[in-house]
Design a protein that fits this description.
By secondary structure, the chain is an alpha/beta fold. The chain has eleven helices and twelve strands. The structure holds alpha-L-arabinofuranose (AHR). The site of alpha-L-arabinofuranose has 11 residues, from α2 and β9.
């Protein structure tokens, strides 16, 4: 490196630190490789597996060290996983918070410890921890819009008349909160759409099936199902068929995620539509970290551009689905 290059590099580094300083966020030096944590919430459905693989693949491609933790569905364990990453003094943390409130304190702890944090997929409680102030950025889908898009499709498909069973995601998680609100806000303008009951199926196929077994007995007049993810919709299809119903014919289903098996269910005529929620965060998350280290201005929210699948494009989209 000659003197001029060294001077320019020093000036860029100084600007980077100054930019970080001005936001109050922890600094991150430009380095050839980093040691970063990825704190996963659980690994119990295809979406989570695809998200983890995408993060691991990108770390491998860049030659970075990825410290991976799996909270196995426990917000308390995930908070302690993050604390362990802070204690290990990693360069940065990628957190996909299981629930909003229990994971908010560790975001502030990481900031106090001087470790930049990137929140991916699910959010924390933004009234307490804000992107661009307490953590670098939120990277993920617009869960509220997902609920709205599912409702819009249902209103159109049922001509504004349906009795709906809603399968909620995990209680206290940001997708469950926003997907419920987005859907309910939309149907509020369509009085012919009535939600008979809303119950959690914890984002898993098995719970979606079990919950639907009970709900379809209690509400035999249901004509539609809104599931907060594909796995629960697929579990619901199994339960509905066992109860003698004909998904796609006498009961309309809509869900969220866009996984391969959901597209297959659309092609088979059982699932009506699914709103994409892309789990492949690797490239975007790691690039955002590099941009941050390089001193580029990072928008506090980086929202994914998601697709929508129904019978018009399910077949053509199969290969690109997770
Ligand atoms: O946070 C995204 C949601 O979490 C996905 O819809 C779901 O499948 C996952 O568990």
């Amino acid at each position: 490196m000659n003197i001029r290059t060294a001077t320019v590099s020093a000036a860029i580094a100084a600007l980077t630190f100054a930019a970080a300083q001005s936001t109050g966020l922890p600094k991150l030096a430009v380095k050839p490789t980093y040691r970063v944590c990825f704190n996963q919430s659980e690994m119990d459905n295809p979406w989570r597996l695809a998200q983890t693989k995408s993060m691991q693949d990108e770390a491998k491609r860049l030659g970075w060290q990825l410290v991976f933790t799996n909270a196995n569905g426990s917000a308390a364990k995930q908070a302690s996983d993050v604390r362990s990453c802070i204690a290990q003094r990693v360069d940065a943390i990628f957190l996909t918070p299981r629930e909003e409130k229990p994971l908010t304190p560790v975001v502030l702890e990481a900031k106090r410890a001087g470790i930049p944090m990137f929140i991916i997929d699910r959010n924390v409680d933004e009234t307490v921890a804000k992107p661009g102030r307490d953590f670098v950025a939120f990277i993920g889908s617009d869960f509220y819009a997902e609920g709205q898009r599912a409702a819009e499709w249902l209103v159109k498909t049922t001509k504004g008349k349906a009795k709906v069973i809603e399968l909620l995601g995990s209680t206290g998680s940001s997708p469950a909160i926003a997907r419920e609100k987005g859907f309910h806000d939309y149907i509020a303008k369509h009085p012919g759409i009535e939600v008979l009951v809303s119950q959690t199926g914890n984002f898993t196929r098995d719970e979606g099936r079990k919950v639907m077994e009970a709900l379809i007995q209690a509400h035999p007049d249901a004509t539609a199902v809104y599931a907060h993810n594909d796995e629960m919709a697929l579990g619901a299809i199994t339960a509905l068929e066992a109860a003698g119903r004909k998904p796609g014919k006498d009961i309309t289903l809509v869900s969220i995620d866009g996984q391969k098996s959901a597209l297959e269910a659309i092609i088979a005529g059982k699932l009506g539509a699914t709103v994409e929620c892309n789990p492949r965060f690797g490239v975007k998350a790691f690039q955002t970290l590099r941009d941050y280290a390089a001193g580029k201005k990072i928008a506090p929210k980086l929202i994914n551009d998601d697709r929508f699948f129904d019978i018009s494009n399910a077949k053509a989209s199969l290969n690109s689905a997770f």
